[in-house]
Amino acid sequence: MTDTTATPKTATLSGSGLSAEPDPTPARRTWQAFRRNPLGVGSAIVLVLLGVVALCAPLIAPFPEGYGTDTSQPPSAAHWFGTDDVGQDVFAQVIWGTRVSITVGVSASALAIVIGLLVGVTAAYFKRLDAPLGVLIDLCLSLPVLPLMILVAALAGPSVRTLVIVIALFSWPEVARVVRSQALAIVPLPYIAAARVVGGSPLWIIRKHLLPGVVPVVGVSVVLTTSRAVLSEAGLAFLGLGDPNSWSWGTILHKAQLSGSLATAWWTTLFPSLAILVLVVAATLLSVAYNDARNHRR
């Protein structure tokens, strides 16, 4: 006589090797989708390598200074990227320029993210401030950014700190607009209302509930803002508004322009331009891949 006792469903699943697994967290789903994107992974590797080059610049090449005997030499085994009009090695300039350009880009991006995050969250949570802050954001976005950046940088004087502050002050409105849009969709949700009912202060609600909801959007903004900051720094430095005592990719282009090497020594401008291009393209592809992974639907 066969046993007709019903076997529990969990045991059946366990016996057949089909054990139930919990659903992955949103962060894990994002990572699983991201690592399947070769362009995103490759872009992340490129950005990490640029960061390593910036940190290890003293170990890779000596600081370019003084004068050399091999002036305006094309790329060779002795000088991989050639030399400029005073005999300085262009490879060393690009390596040390990576440190300054990435430092300015990351610092300006971090400051812009902080300002944009505070303004965007404040505008979304406090309804009385939404209209005036929204007008302020739209007004800042409508300003001619490049001429104003040139004017402010020229008045403040050339330095790395000036570039960081100037770029951040003209970059935060885009972050604030994105954060405000995301936060406006979170504020009406039931758990925000429940937090108010139980007596949560606005600062506690923003810190515990609102900020975690906008962090994924901020993650995309960090990469894009950094790449735009690097481009802005290169443009300002190319116009002679960078720190004359330090090297950046824009400074290399500026000195090549002053020496007339733009037309006679192509290597003095090609390699710093390629460095800027690689960073901006990698940052853009990384942000696109991350955004696609975050919005991935199986």
Automatic annotation (TrEMBL):
| Low complexity compositional bias, start-end | 1-12
Name the protein family: Belongs to the binding-protein-dependent transport system permease family.
PANTHER family noted in UniProt: D,D-DIPEPTIDE TRANSPORT SYSTEM PERMEASE PROTEIN DDPC-RELATED, OLIGOPEPTIDE TRANSPORT SYSTEM PERMEASE PROTEIN APPC
Location in the cell: Cell membrane
Topological category with respect to the lipid bilayer: Multi-pass membrane protein
Instruction: Supply one GO BP term.
Output: transmembrane transport
Annotated region Disordered: where? 1-27
Keywords associated with the record: Cell membrane, Membrane, Transmembrane, Transmembrane helix, Transport
Q: What is this protein called?
A: Peptide/nickel transport system permease protein
List the CDD domains hit by this protein, alphabetically: TM_PBP2 (cd06261)
One Gene Ontology cellular component: plasma membrane
Give the highest taxon in the source lineage. Bacteria
For whether the record's keyword set contains Cell membrane, the answer is yes
Name any one Pfam family assigned in the record: OppC_N
Entry's transmembrane regions: 39-61, 102-126, 178-198, 210-231, 265-290
Specify the species: Sinosporangium album
